[in-house]
Write a structure and sequence with these properties.
Blueprint (H helix, E strand, L loop, with lengths): L1 H12 L3 H22 L8 H6 L12 E2 L2 E2 L2 H4 L2 H4 L4 H13 L7 H27 L5 H50 L4 H12 L4 H15 L4 H12 L2 H16 L3 H38 L1 H25 L1
Antiparallel strand pairs: 1-2
Length: 325
């Protein structure tokens, strides 16, 4: 009987028939266990832990609001699987998402869900391709075509977030000198620091929305009664830019020693303008080197073909004529 089954499977699926059978059995077992895991009863003692993480419970009748809008109830159901269990990793991921411009409390959960969905989806597509469309490949190639798309899908969202962090930091750094100039004008006009920050953020919002959002958050937290140095340090930590950190240090020291904020802003704004000019000059000095590579790759080969091509053609004809003679 075993020989008969083995012959049938080999004729239908090829030499790797038992590998396909084992994989299918494992997939069936996973699908059978998923309903049991997802419908598992919640322990009463876990209620406090869930509420601390901001999870909406099923028996909550009211629509709770977070700091940035409504919570995602679909993701909240699977929060115990999506939220990192390590507090350090959770804090690091949340900080990265805040710097990327996603301060929502569900941002970490959404990122984890995107990684899992993309990773599993591309893994399934790779498995289908390697097992069905390219069944004649070797086992090593099948594993590569199956695992590599899954790995790429898992790390792609985090890579995109890192690129988003770098882009947002560049936007904030480019608009910071203009924001300082406008803040200096408002302070010298007689407005308080809080009013100056609000006015400056409102004016620069069309041009630099990321920087305006950071300053508006600072103004709102100051209105809420938070300590001004703590609010400014939190802004420096969210932005993670040396210019912002130095600006926060200048404001805190100016308030501590009782010196004029306008004088400190005037000196620091001049330094930021000079730094922006230096960054522009640095990019301009690097440009010829980058253009040299493009010139060597796209201009020199056609030029050599134009100059040497006729000579090579003449030499080839001469050699062919000599051989014929």
């Amino acid at each position: 009987m075993f020989e008969t089954i083995n012959t049938m499977l080999t004729d239908a699926l090829g030499a790797d028939a038992w590998i396909y059978v084992a994989g299918g059995a494992g997939l069936v077992l996973v699908l059978m266990m998923l309903p049991l895991i997802l419908t598992r009863k919640k322990e009463p003692m876990d209620r406090i832990a869930r509420e601390r993480k901001g999870i909406i419970l099923e028996d909550d009748s009211d629509n709770r609001l977070s700091r940035h809008g409504t919570r995602n109830e679909h993701l909240a159901k699977y929060a115990q699987y999506l939220d990192p269990q390590d507090e350090e990793e959770m804090s690091k991921t949340r900080t990265m998402l805040i710097r990327a411009g996603y301060p929502h409390k569900d941002a970490v959960r959404t990122l984890t869900a995107a990684q899992m969905l993309l990773g599993l989806g591309l893994l399934v597509l790779g498995a289908i391709y390697s097992l069905v469309l390219a069944a004649d490949m070797s086992m090593l190639n099948k594993m590569a075509y199956t695992m590599i798309p899954g790995v790429v899908g898992y790390y792609a969202p985090k890579y995109w977030v890192n690129k988003r962090v770098a882009k947002r930091q560049g936007e904030i750094q480019d608009g910071f000198p203009d924001a300082l100039d406008l803040l200096l004008v408002c302070v010298e006009a007689g407005q308080s620091l809080d009013q100056s920050i609000i006015r400056m953020a409102t004016e620069i919002e069309p041009s630099y929305p990321a920087l305006a959002g950071e300053f508006l958050m600072v103004a709102q937290e100051m209105k809420a009664g938070k300590d001004k140095p703590d609010v400014l340090r939190a802004m420096a930590d969210r932005c993670d830019i040396n210019d912002i950190t130095s600006f926060v240090t200048v404001l805190i020291q100016s308030a501590s020693f009782g010196t004029s904020i306008a004088d400190a802003l005037r000196v620091y704004a001049g330094e930021m303008r000079d730094k922006r000019v230096m960054r522009a000059e640095e990019k301009a000095n690097v440009l010829p080197t980058k253009l040299t590579v493009g010139t060597m790759m796209f201009c020199v080969p056609p030029l050599l073909i134009i100059l040497i091509g006729p000579s090579l053609f003449g030499i080839a004809e001469a050699l062919s004529g000599t051989k014929a003679f």
